[in-house]
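Here we describe the complex-level prediction in full. Unlike the single-chain runs in Section 2.1, the two entities below were treated as one system.
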Amino acid sequence: MLYTNLKHVESGAQLEKIISENENVMVICGRMGPMCIPVYGIAEELEDTYKNVQFFDMEFDNPEAVVIRRLPEVRGFMGIPFTIYYKNGKVVKATSSIQSKQQITTILDTEFGASAK
Amino acid sequence: MNEVKKYDVIVVGGGPAGLTAGIYLSRARLKTVILNEGTIGGQMILTHEIANYPGVESINGFQLANIMKKQAKSFGCDLISNINIASMDIESDTKTITLTDGQTFSSDAVILTPGGRPRTLGVPGEGKFKGRGISYCATCDGDFFTDKEIIVVGGGNSALEEAVSLTKYATKVTIVHQFDNFQAFEHAIEEATNHPKINFIMESTIAAFYGEENLEHVDILNLKTNAITPFKTDGVFIFIGYVANTESLKGIVTLNEWGEIVVNSDLETNLPGVFAAGDCIAKRYRQVTTSVGEGTIAALAASNYLHLKKQTNK
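The structure predicted for the assembly as a whole is:
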């Protein structure tokens, strides 16, 4: 279980629904570990600023997380969290391991446009 | 120009020391803000289980941090996280801190609790292969290295214990350590040295990381002979201790040779009205409980400083 204040994705079907109904989605797939927790924390902070982005987390060890673990964009990733950015249902960016707030906001601004804030 | 936000005390850092200081100061009706460059909770949030925090049988570090955060907020403490400090004037009577987003805060006292972070090797390729072969967390990433050969860098308790734990996944673990002996407890040394899957390369370090998409090999530098040997590996785990987050304080407050803030028993720095607590100060033991104790002392000392200052100005 992920003890974060983010909305949780529990299943592949739920993820499919989320990315089909929302233009901009960020999903952090990880565990309650040192590389993941800072990324959840940053996402929680950014929820208020980036109103046009839906932020979620998903437990890496949930068998349903195969929908993220098997994405071609994460091939070669060897560090959690896998953070996936979806635009109109398609993966536009994926990162591995811990990221800084600046790295994340750069991706949000680049991938989700200048109107993000 | 942005309006300056006036507080009685600014706490720089939101780990257990900073949060405790925030709780004590706010409860004493001192207007307090915690400015935190990362996620609130510091190193505490990275601990899976805290079983030795008195009064709490066992708790996840993230949950304990959330409780402390709520407690500080409930007393009126302001918390601002994931910020970047652009400039700091804490030498003057009135302390001023400006963030990169232009917000400026002023106060009569400051408590420095910036904490620490895992030390990195700082060699070519380390940034490129983070998450693609280089890791700083065995619990997080160990299973990506199932049936692979890996290196663990370091010679302290963390390095040796994590090396043993990584043998659950890896076929071979090579420990690379800069000295000819380990800085760990005897039981940890014994367990690692007796493990059939663990090998050692002593008096050496990694000089560079190489690969295409993922890490493929490293250069191992022998610190005695300066010889460099290429070494094929699937992954490298780095456990070489912690470093205090005090780079921006250099030349402002007195630091020791390891970059830790020098304080007296009341946790006063060399600057009047500036206190320090937690993992950033010069001390031997670093625990959540020691940080909480220091946060308390720093808050009480800062309260006393403000009280005396008020008396003097009457």
